[in-house]
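Minutes, project check-in

Agenda point 3 was the complex the collaborators sent over. CS summarized: two entities, 606 residues total, and the question is how they sit relative to each other. Sequences were read into the notes so everyone works from the same version.
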Amino acid sequence: MQKVFTRPKGLTELPFHYCPGCTHGIIHRLIGEVLDELNIIEDTIGVAPVGCAGFSLDFFSCDFVGAAHGRAQAVATGIKRALPDKLVFTYQGDGDISAIGTSHAIHVAARSEKITSIMVNNAVFGMTGGQMAPTTLSGQVTTTSPYGRDSAAFGNPIDLPKIIATMDGAAYVAAVSADSPKNIIAAKKAIKKAFQVQQLGLGFAFVSVLSTCPTNWGLSPVESIKWLQQNMLPIYQMGELKVNKEVEAI
Amino acid sequence: MDKVLIKGNEAIAEAAIRSGCKLFFGYPITPSTEIMEYLSKNMPKAGGTILQGEDEVASINMCYGAAATGARVMTASSSPGFSLKQEGLSYIAAAELPVVVVNVNRSGPGLGGLGPAQSDYFQCTKGGGHGDYRLIVLAPSKGQEMYDFTMQAFDLADKYRNPVLILADGFLGQMMEPIELKERPAVNLPAKDWVTNGCRGRNKRKIASYALTNEIGEANCMYWQTKYKQIKEEEQRWESYQADDAEYLLVGYGTCGRIAKSVVINARKHGIKLGLIRPISLWPFPENAFKRHISTVKGIVAIELNAGQMVEDIRLAVNCKIPVELYNRQGGMLPTETEIFQYVSQVFNLKLPEEG
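CS then shared the predicted structure for the full assembly.
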């Protein structure tokens, strides 16, 4: 009998231990498939952040380095500058890359560092128990905004891909979502392109993926998907936000 | 071999290139900037890469990444910038990555001044960042040592898989001295069979410092301490000068060690049995240098450019069996030979032998 669905080689055998309904597992799988399809597992070094996404270093079958909170892109820069012929990617949560790591996000784009960054945006700090992140929506209740995020006092959500897309050095920027089969297919395409951009040496590639956090949102997995669709999709700009000329040819 | 007249900072930079350092990540700060400027000019010619990071935090984390691939890598900074590198250094120490770091100490706290100071002694020798870790710290006292110790630093870093710090000051960094550009010594170093450079033909590797359970956490800590114990046993370095028959000892490192040597020469002319111990490795502190003097020396004076930091390590090294006094200047000021000599005479109530 022909096997039509299998675990991609880009993932290790370790079962995911993310919370039920969290979309990290889906996004991991997409990256695992891309590593597999592009046949780059042995030439890729991943950089993990701090937070739930920090577990990623055990789940991918390529070499991995664990960075300090927010520093994954600086670490990735060091790896890429030492090994320009290898592929280097970061896998970071929104609390990592768009709060403590923002300066690195801006500067890897400014330098058009030839790395790929994946941001998983669930609008909270997940691992520490659901605190307000820069991506937390206006009015959203978290443990550090228990009365809802008051924009007057705590600001409005940062739409990082939109910012990065304005920079000359960003070769490819896409904002996708892991909420539906259609969007997951689009997410895979964007992630694959972001790795191809690096393979071709075209510059910095960035993909943001909207994700759920049922545990910290206090919702069921199904309710979480609905919450993402109703609350996050209207706020965060979706689609390919920056495709430079050379990337268009891919 | 011919000597060249260059600044101490440039000597560090040239030694790095000749040690096979292929990457430098930094951020300008006085009085260490010449290291980066020199490398910006000369590193690319030597086939290396230099990158000015967005800040010191980025620079040290770029070092972390480059070191994880097995490449020789360096960063340099001065006190406020060195403070910013502490987070990264803690991770580098925990992940056991060989990185060479230079701190050309300026005076502090805060923004401080640019003059020579040793006010970062605690920060450099006691860890500096969070967690129980140590850097190997080498303290040059002249241009040639800025060069030599940088070369040694790369080998020590590779030997122990540990960050190594060159601790200098603005005086040593800025001063021009004739320096012999020696070739890299041949040293047998362990193979880097731990690097993350793509898993072609082998199993996946990971480099990280997270301990998921307390049991693993404790095992890691005990392992690190075993390594530090080995370094403590094998790498204590110091210079003794006129110390064998000394009744009194000066202890100073870096610029102070240099000044103290002149004080000893002068004291000997006056018939005073003064000697010098100049710590070269500040961590591990050269405790062994003091052991043989505990029963013979009557008093010690630490000479420091801070409020008195190394003096604590000297007291521990002599088990408080000898009086250990402090003569210090701060904020970028240097002591003169005369004032040190006067202090030593006064504090130990020394009567100068009648001249003639």
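Noted in discussion: The longest helix of chain B spans residues 214-234.
Follow-up: revisit at the next meeting once the mutant set is ready.
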